Amino acid sequence: MTYQKNEYSKRPSSKDTGVRDAKNTQRRYDDDRKPYGKKPFDRREDGERSYGKKPYDRREDGDRSYGKKPFEKRDGQKPFGKKPFDRQNDERKPFGKKPFDRQNDERRPQQPDRSQQQNENDEQPYLLIGRNAVREAVKSGRSIDRILVTNERDGSLGEIVTLARERKLVVREVDRRKLDELCMPFGHGGKTANHQGIVAYAAGVTYCDIADILDVAKARGEAPFVIVLDEIEDPHNLGSIIRSADCAGAHGVVIGKRRSASVTAAAVKASAGATEYVKIARVVNINAALAQLKSAGLWVAGADMKGESMRSAALKGPLALVIGNEGEGISKLVRENCDFLVSIPMQGHIDSLNAGVAAAILMFEKKRQDSETV
Q1: How do residues 248-266 score in pLDDT, each as one tens digit?
Q2: Considering the chain, what is the average pLDDT of its residues?
Q3: Does residue 83 come out as left (phi exceeding 0), alpha (psi in the -120 to 50 range) or beta?
Q4: Nearest to 295 by CA among 219, 209, 211
Q5: Which pLDDT score, from 0 to 100, does residue 152 have?
Q6: N or C: which terminus of the chain carries fewer CB neighbours within 10 A?
Q7: 192 is in which domain, residue-wise?
Q8: Are 183 and 193 in contact, with CB atoms under 8 Å apart?
């Protein structure tokens, strides 16, 4: 068997006779295909960019070349490298702009409304903390879900548990650490509230109308005596005033819905259970409430340091006593709607009293004047 002679073994340059075969050795540069030996940076005859063309060369179509820097401007358009805060009138939000830079942005997170948060908290069940608060709630027949008590029943704790079981309320014994955990949000300085070994889950307080307060006075056959609180923010002050109002024989307390403390667990604890007996009206506008009380025949007296001394002021008969904010006192418009202002004679170096203390002094002064006319 014979093999065909290999044609590739013959090299044109191995035996050079001095005459090269143009067909085999010479490259055809006019060929449509790229010649094998053409360097990558040679320009092709078809006008297109050769493979070896550098990226920063400008293309003939007028578009931005690949190597053009991003901060160079293109035909009036925004350059790629322009910073987001350079375009102030752009309708679209720039990528780097912070969310609070756009004042009119609808997507800007809104600050939570304090009054709305208070309304949501009031609708939820809350705790009655302490022995007095739980005892008065049980005695008044208030709706109570369950009572949590420690197994250390000393003093009046056993009496409260016995009274609760007579009313067939649910009483559960828990560890003291459980009560500490539940009352921690109502404490001060990182300490839990003084629960005294007992708490109760109860429904939120039921607010009434001003007309209901006036009906209570009418049913007792007494001149109406109403306490109006103008932006009292501390729930402990609120609870203290409610407690004093019950002791002084007031028929009800009026509080505002906005910028005012509501009757929470802390207020109930500070009132020592007086919220079970005192009518509490919650109104939108304090000035409108004062106008309603005036139409019912009550005089409106505002507690103010520049007012008339309580010893000479006429506090007898139907009266609405206005107590102002802890720091700023009565607001300007509420002060103008008061019939007269009354003050407490002061001695010593401190010229002001706590809102709860001042309210209690004025209440009992009114009670003293009423007793003198009898």
Answers
A1: 999 999 999 888 888 888 8
A2: 76
A3: beta
A4: 211
A5: 80
A6: N
A7: 118-202
A8: yes
We report the CATH number of the domain holding residue 312 as: 3.40.1280.10
What is the distance of C-alpha 132 from the center of its chain? Answer: 31
- Position 7 pLDDT exceeds 90: no
- The mean per-residue pLDDT over the stretch 122-149 comes to 80
* Pairwise CA distance, residues 250 & 229, whole Å: 13
pLDDT (average), residues 76-90: 51
Exposed/middle/buried for residue 261 (C-beta within 10 Å: 0-12, 13-18, 19+): buried
Residues 263 and 321 grouped into a single domain: yes
Residue with tokens 């006192």: 329
Q: Around Cβ 334, how many Cβ atoms within 10 Å?
A: 21
Is 107's pLDDT higher than 80? no
Which residues fall within 8 angstroms of residue 239, CB to CB, at 6 or more apart? Answer: 266, 267, 268, 269, 270, 271, 272, 274, 275
**Amino acid at the residue 94:** P
Q: Looking at residue 78, what is its pLDDT?
A: 53
The residue with tokens 């006019």 is 30
Write the pLDDT tens digit of every residue in 154-163. Answer: 778 888 999 9
Cβ(197)–Cβ(184) below 8 Å: no
Instruction: Let me know whether 189 and 258 are in one domain.
Output: no
Same domain membership, residue 188 and residue 123: yes
